[in-house]
What does this fold into?
Amino acid sequence: MAEEHGAETHGEAEHGAENHGPMHQFEIKPLIDFHVGKYDLSYTNSSLMMTFVVMLTFLLFAGATRKRTMVPSRWQSLAEILYEFNATMVKDNIGKQGLKYLPFVFTLFLFVLLSNVLGLMPYSFTITSHIVVTASLALAIWIGATVIGFARHGFHYFSLLLPKGTPMAVAPFLVLIETMSYFIRPVSLSLRLFANMMAGHVLLKVLAGFIVTLGLLFGWIPLVAVFGITLLEIMVALIQAYVFALLTCIYLNDAVNLH
Amino acid sequence: MPQFDPSSFPSQIFWLVVSFIALYLVVSRIAVPRIAEVLEQRHRLVQDDIDRAAALKAETDAAIASYEQAMAEARAQAQDHVRSITADVKAIADKKTAEVVAAVTEQITSAEARIAKARSDALDGMKQLAADSARDVVAKLAAITPEAGKVDAAVASALKEAR
It folds into this structure.
């Protein structure tokens, strides 16, 4: 075990040598060592950002809902808008009975949203640019939806794989496609978020590198590009959070209402 | 790519689970119930106001309706009054007119009677006068005293011819 750990630190040192590459921003750096058995559960820069996400959410909602006035303050209004946005999304996609999943969807939305947005700050770290994080979330959602589906509908949940009104001739083919699409859900859900976040950050980093390389004379061209792409990335951060929560709602709808 | 370095996976998954549970607790224990409560309160407040406004409007409508009805009743009553008073007045006027007509008719009748009497009286006086004159004339001219009956008859026939 100790040898393994030694190899890790050695690997990190190697990464450290290429500190200015565009991939450096995705490095996981342990801040507080924490090992359980053979697992390295160190508190890292990623964990720190997650802590920020939780604390920020706590501060926003605990602070905004402290007074709970009939005419909301700005912060309360923001909290209400976020809530209503998610509540509407859940209600529109799953229906009234889906509201019991609102806390989960809302948590998911806030986690992805704040991870994406906080990650855009210079020198910070983007939690959602790591496939293991997005895949864990997506798998948990997918498994959870599947369990709910079987719990609610039993064996009948398989009928999800055969859309209504399918001619019997194409049914086997369609069931195959639907099965594949069902199993690909967690993959597409996690890859979409991960790829979007990583690509945007790499692009920003590469273009930012050009600013320095091109110097004072032409450096402003990539600077303008970085400015524009930063705006674009803010949009992507918001949209990806929405898409993630929306797809979760759609999967939950399949599980709850079975078309 | 640091994303595909499996040595960081346990740590990331562990802290993801921890933070996600913490975040879920914040959202489900604080954010959702509090915001749901305030939204519900606001909704109820607005609904109450709307209900109250509807009730007040109904009240107003009822008041207007009863006012209109009272107005209509009053108008009808007033018209009845006018009608009955007109009828009374007309009856009184008719009665008075009849009385006056009757009195006047009576007066006319009595006046006519008086006139007729006066006339016959005057005629009688004239007959007497004529008879007396005739008698005097006859007495002076013929120096005879005519019979009273003959003179009267002669005067009466003479008056009949003159008339």
Summary: Chain B touches chain A at residues 1-5, 7-20, 22-24, 26-28, 30-32, 34-39, 41-42, 45 (CB under 8 Å). Helices of chain B lie at 9-142, 148-162. Chain B has two helices and no strands. The mean pLDDT of chain B is 91.
